[in-house]
Amino acid sequence: MEGGALALPHFRSRVGIGSPILLSADPGAARRSSGASGRSRVSRVNPGAYPRSAGRGRTWKRDSPEAPPRRSGITRVPNHSPEMPTERAGRTKVSNVNLEVSHHRAVAAVRLLRIEKGKAFVDLLNEKGNSSGENEMSYVERTLGFSIRCLDNRDIRLVTVIVAGTVRWKRYLDYLIMSLCSEEKVFREMEPLLLQILRIGFFEILKLNVPAYAAVDENVRLAKVALRPGAGNLVNAILRKLLLLKEANSLPLPKIEGDDRAQARALSIIYSHPVWMVRRWIRFLGKEEALKLMKWNNSDPHFSIRVNTANGYTRADLIDRLESLQVHYEKSTMDEFVRIQEGMQNYLNLFHVQTVLQAGLLKEGMCAVQDESAGKFPCLSDSGTSHLSKHLILMLRHEESIVGLVVSVVDPQPGETIIDCCAAPGGKTLFMAARLSGQGKIWALDINKGRLRILMEAAKLHNLDAMISDIHADLRLYAKETTATFDKVLLDAPCSGLGVLSKRADLRWNRQFEDLEELMCLQDELLDSASMLVKPGGILVYSTCSIDPEENEHRIAAFVQRHPDFVLQSVHGYVPAEFVTDEGFYSSSPTKHSIDGAFAARLVRSVL
């Protein structure tokens, strides 16, 4: 688990402390049903509140996530054509494809519902809208009660843009929605699907500048078909009220006034971040830097492509291919990297990344879509690519600071033995192996067997598999059981991920203040274990994708106190001077360097 903005249970699954968070379907039906079997009736209750009854005297009850989809009584599902036959359990099922609603908005609404329940990721939308098996189309049918056509590449990009943006701006959008409801109770008791549709409409109007008629009409139609006419009327009224306020430049946003707590609350709404993050950044960075950081986190992320020199390619070769594909780029200060620049879609630069994928550059082994900073690949979708290509994209998570610059801190040299202690998905592992020029050995250790397997497939694609061996283990147990030591040990530790929030739209809402204490304890344990693997005179590199000093400088200070046989060595000479702190650490800052935040420390073990 390379880099650590991953869920802690991923690391603990071997020792029984928790269980991994799985990407699984949420078949819970968010649609509202009413009426007797075979009938369709319109609820007459307040369209913004939960209906108190449905049908003939029966109490309305939200569908359980485990409940099977209802087969009758679905409200306002029109009889559409054409019919789509599907095979299920040996029987032929005929599904009605709804041609009235906006299909990408329907998928986005269902995905937002599943994200809210922790059953899906923001940035993972696979081939033709599927996540695995039947997937996205099936989720939509089970949730809304009707089918939609398969999504094309443009639709998939739109879903990704809308979902990521809506999640990123959730607190801001919810504040405005609540302000425009007739009373707060209407918002508090709003049906989950209705809320997602409103969030989509608000995001399209305020952040995507979608034409007003399209944003209103399409979301109203979706609410009417997926819920009931009254819900569509409510969406229509609120969105039109929003348009009037936007045109008059009088959105009802909170004023930044009062004591520190009150100001932090207002800023958390305006910039859509948790209050605890805002207060913490103001404390450590000051108000001005905190505002710059939040603006960065809400901006469109940029990504880099690393040329695979192990396969004999040069950056000039990669640039020639990019120009032939009309992909906008700029050269990085690091020789192996090209940064994908403007002309992309709003989130994850999907258009040009997909162009790179579909042109086969990854499958050819010419390059890896990977950040110069961290070497983690984000989950992007590409129609028709293999799971390995998707994994290579997954390795793209950060910017110039972490893969390229952290690997520079490690400084792999031909003939060395190196262990990457939290290796998957493998960005740093592959880059370090490429730096060894065919001489030396790298061991990739990770607790996740499946991710290790894909890492090794990626190594084979990059012609580096002879230099990399995988170890499936919990680092803490492995360090106690092995007698092996290495020239260099890299620990890219699990962390809060506070340096990469621009690329992780949902991470800000999935992190709690209490997580930091738990993560710091884990980081200390892993550092202690990693230190046992370092040869006398060898190097230990500790890195994170966090900008929080308690996960970074404070962890190293505590480690050196526990392990006096390790001495901090300055990273000066290994990375550009602008990234070297007064204490000799590597540190990148979004507000200072316009790249993702990351940290690294280089420690030398004494010979005696």
TrEMBL record:
Organism (species): Oryza nivara
Q: Which compartment or compartments is the protein found in?
A: Cytoplasm
What Gene3D superfamilies has UniProt attached to this entry? NusB-like, Sun protein, domain 3, Vaccinia Virus protein VP39
Principal location listed in the UniProt entry = cytoplasm
Q: SUPFAM superfamilies given for it?
A: NusB-like (SSF48013), S-adenosyl-L-methionine-dependent methyltransferases (SSF53335)
Gene Ontology annotations for the cellular component aspect, listed alphabetically: cytoplasm
- Lineage of the native species? Eukaryota, Viridiplantae, Streptophyta, Embryophyta, Tracheophyta
Protein name per the record: SAM-dependent MTase RsmB/NOP-type domain-containing protein
Matching PANTHER family: NOL1_NOP2_SUN FAMILY PROTEIN _ ANTITERMINATION NUSB DOMAIN-CONTAINING PROTEIN, NOP2 YEAST -RELATED NOL1/NOP2/FMU SUN DOMAIN-CONTAINING
User: Keyword Heme, does the record have it?
Assistant: no
Task: Name all SAM-dependent MTase RsmB/NOP-type domain ranges.
Answer: 326-606
Supply the alphabetized keyword list.
Answer: Cytoplasm, Methyltransferase, RNA-binding, rRNA processing, S-adenosyl-L-methionine, Transferase
